[in-house]
Specification:
- The protein has 238 residues and is mostly helical.
- The chain has 12 helices and no strands.
- It is globular, with a radius of gyration of 20 Å.
Length: 238
């Protein structure tokens, strides 16, 4: 669909009557480019989308595209710039009364704060994210929030606390039949157990479960998980 989108964008003008449709197309195309690794082209498409949404007065869509551009800044290592974009995303979602998106923004900001070494700030954001996800009944989001809190505990070398949060999150996403987050949680918990909780007996089994799920979903994460298994001495199967 990339060729079709390129042709439509080439024919389109920013003076077209349907700014919102064109802006949406630009955003979809930009995110497709980003997933394919074409960061520069993605940045240009998303910035065009941002301008069109701004011109059309679509405040919520403006916030979403700012978040997309924040993802690009993270890839480029500009954490301060990404934080600014995510903070704007959070501000607008609070203004328009979208709690689920507010929670996502808090999670994104927590991730940035972890990378910038502010573990206390990250935990505050993740705990607020968890509260919101529970209020809106978003099981997937609740599981992700629990993993995030576990990652903060692991960064603080609080192994027992981290294991507690990881296992809680894993149980929730399993119950929700969320294969992607089950794989991620299994991999995180396995790494913790194998490196810091040698008395535990299920580390290799959890890592194998992550590998199996990644393989079924045809995700490149499988290679990383297999490398971890090799490094930590776990036998794996296809």
């Amino acid at each position: 669909w990339g060729i079709e989108a390129t042709e439509r964008l080439d024919r389109a003008s920013d003076q077209d009557a349907d700014h919102i449709a064109l802006a949406s197309l630009c955003r979809a195309y930009g995110n497709a480019l980003l997933r394919a690794g074409h960061t520069g082209m993605a940045d240009a498409a998303l910035k065009r989308s941002l301008k069109l949404f701004q011109d059309a007065g679509q405040i919520r869509s403006v916030a979403i595209v700012k978040s997309d551009l924040g993802d690009i800044l993270v890839q480029r290592g500009d954490l301060a710039g990404a934080q600014t974009n995510y903070e704007e995303y959070l501000r607008i979602m609070r203004e328009v009364g979208d709690p689920r998106s507010e929670g996502v923004a808090l999670s994104l900001l927590g991730d940035i704060l972890v990378q910038r070494g502010d573990l206390a700030g990250a935990q505050t954001n993740y705990e607020e994210y968890l509260r919101i996800m529970r209020e809106v009944g978003d099981t997937r989001g609740e599981g992700v929030a629990l993993f995030n809190i576990g990652q903060v505990a692991e960064a603080r070398e609080q192994w027992d606390v981290a294991e507690h949060w990881y296992r809680l999150g894993l149980a929730i996403v399993r119950e929700a039949d969320d294969a992607l987050n089950e794989a991620r949680a299994s991999e995180m918990l396995a790494g913790l157990l194998l490196e810091h909780r040698p008395q535990s007996s299920d580390g290799c089994a959890l890592l194998q479960r992550a590998i199996t799920l990644y393989h079924q979903m045809e995700l490149p994460d499988e290679e990383r998980a297999r490398e971890t298994a090799l490094r930590l001495g776990c036998a794996t199967t296809a």
